[in-house]
Amino acid sequence: MDLRAIPAQPSPGLIHVVVEVPAGGRNKYEYLPAPGLMALDRVLHPSVQYPFDYGFVPNTMAEDGSPLDAMVVMEEPTFPGCMILSRPIGLLEVIDQKRYDAKLLCVPANDPHLDRMSNLGQLSAQQLEDIAEFFRTHRGMDGRMTEIQGWLEGQPVMDHIDRCITAAAVPAPPQPQEPDKSESDH
């Protein structure tokens, strides 16, 4: 599964999300680009499970150096590796181990039951708190310090997505080359 040709944002207001963990799951899978497959990263504590499908936006780079994390509100869970055309509706600001690690919240673009959902106010306050509590709790069980800063929506969310797309498009700085030791100086 080579994701390099998949645009992060195929059209304005829409993004692709690749699912790593379906809703209700405790197995945390992670996409490995080199072999192009999903691998089991860890198993979460039995008392916590992902509230919605969780994954990442391909061809983005967040502040933590990995693709932008995303969660998709789904009525039925999908499967690891499923790509969902999604509409972002909010962003949970998380500080994980003193590093900014935002979580994008989306709805599927192709679900007629959710096609009118466009902002966080259309979810219950309890659903939003459940998502925040999930990140607070599952990280804490790993012994990691996590701070939930709150939710953003509207233009700040789209600006964050744009920054992550731009960051992924910037080539990495060249690495210093060591001299070839096979050739000797005469």
How would you describe this structure in keywords?
two-stranded antiparallel sheet; 186 residues; alpha+beta; disordered C terminus; Inorganic Pyrophosphatase; 2 helices
Strand content: 25-35%
Radius of gyration from the CA trace?
18 Å
Helix fraction bin: 10-25%
Tally of separate helices: 2
Order of helices and strands: EEEEEEEEHEH
Low-confidence stretches: 182-186
The H-level CATH homologous superfamily, spelled out, is Inorganic pyrophosphatase
Strands, count: 9
Order of adjacent strands in the largest pleated sheet: 1-4-5-8-6
3D shape: globular
- Assigned CATH architecture: Alpha-Beta Complex
What's the structural domain tally? 1
Mean pLDDT: 89
SS content category: alpha+beta
N-end to C-end Cα span: 49 Å
Task: Characterize the main sheet.
Answer: 5 strands, mixed, barrel
- The top-level CATH class is Alpha Beta
CATH topology, by name, is: Inorganic Pyrophosphatase
Structure report:
- It contains two helices and nine strands, in the order E-E-E-E-E-E-E-E-H-E-H.
- With 186 residues, the chain is of the alpha+beta class.
- It has one domain (15-167): Alpha-Beta Complex (Inorganic Pyrophosphatase).
- Strands 1-4-5-8-6 form a five-stranded mixed barrel.
- The longest helix is centred in the last third of the chain and has 17 residues, at 125-141.
- The N and C termini lie far apart (49 Å).
- Residues 182-186 have low confidence and may be disordered.
Summarize the structure.
This protein is α+β, with helices and mostly antiparallel strands. It contains two helices and nine strands; from the N terminus they run ββββββββαβα. Strand 2 (27-32) and strand 3 (37-43) form a beta hairpin.
